[in-house]
Amino acid sequence: MAQVTHCLADSLSPSTNKDEAMEVSELLQQTHQLPNVPDVVRELIQQLNNPKADYSVIADKIIHDQTLSLKILRLVNSAHFGLSRKVTSINEAIILLGMAQLKTMVVASGFSGSVKEVEGLDLKRFWAESFEVAALSKWFAEKTTDVDPDTAFTVGLIHNIGQLLLHLTKPKLAEAIVKLVDETGCSRSEAEMERLNFTTAEAGQALLKYWQFPASLGEAVRYHKHPLDAPDPNPLSAIVNIACYFNTSIRQNRPVEEVMTMFPMAAAEVAGLPKDIAESSEDAMQLQSGLDELL
Description:
Layout: H1 2-11, H2 24-28, H3 39-46, H4 55-63, H5 66-76, H6 90-112, H7 123-141, H8 149-158, H9 161-169, H10 171-184, H11 188-196, H12 200-210, H13 215-222, H14 235-251, H15 256-261, H16 265-271, H17 281-285
Helix pairs in contact: 3-6, 4-6, 5-6, 6-8, 7-8, 7-14, 8-13, 8-14, 9-10, 9-12, 10-11, 12-13, 13-14, 14-16
């Protein structure tokens, strides 16, 4: 660790030090730069764990949101669903999908359409990877009674929202952090602490609080990289941690045997997953989000 810290210190510009480091609140003050998430998406997320939520009202709002409606129709008619005929009515699409699937799609569509262009960030790749983590999070959540699958999908989708926030509000700093990681081999979190004195996971938690999302989502985002570091480790952040591990393994083409051997079993225990969950590694690595049509 000392070697990495020294490497980072050598890479800092003379004007950058922790005494001058910004606070997360500085990012949130640039309200015109924040992601523009549709109201219906905010309401859905706020209602995720409310068994008395009136989803017929939410469905009505979706119908009157032309952008969301068109995206949902496009996805319903994609090869992923394999329907024998074309669906042209959003009302019919909602019935065919069911509320659980509809919630997933609306949240995914709302976030992926929240920003059109970001300096120094490949948005299509960013959301594609976010979708994969979301799908993996939901898949693993379905194997434990301790985590709601829809909530896991949502947190998986927005686990890196703090990085998006940083690129939107401080693109030069974001670029410097990426460069620092590439040049020194340090972790993203270490580079962020050196440059910002906070991590983008913490920034993500602050943004979700600003949006008045449930506190449990913000906590899961903050601790998804190190779920056991939380004062009270929770299953949701552990699930997303495992999903991120598999997403990285898939992108790096790791052999299944290696993935099974290195399976984050400590996180799996916190998540309440079965003791033999590592044996499902091959199935998890074949998983696809099926949400490319939303990009």
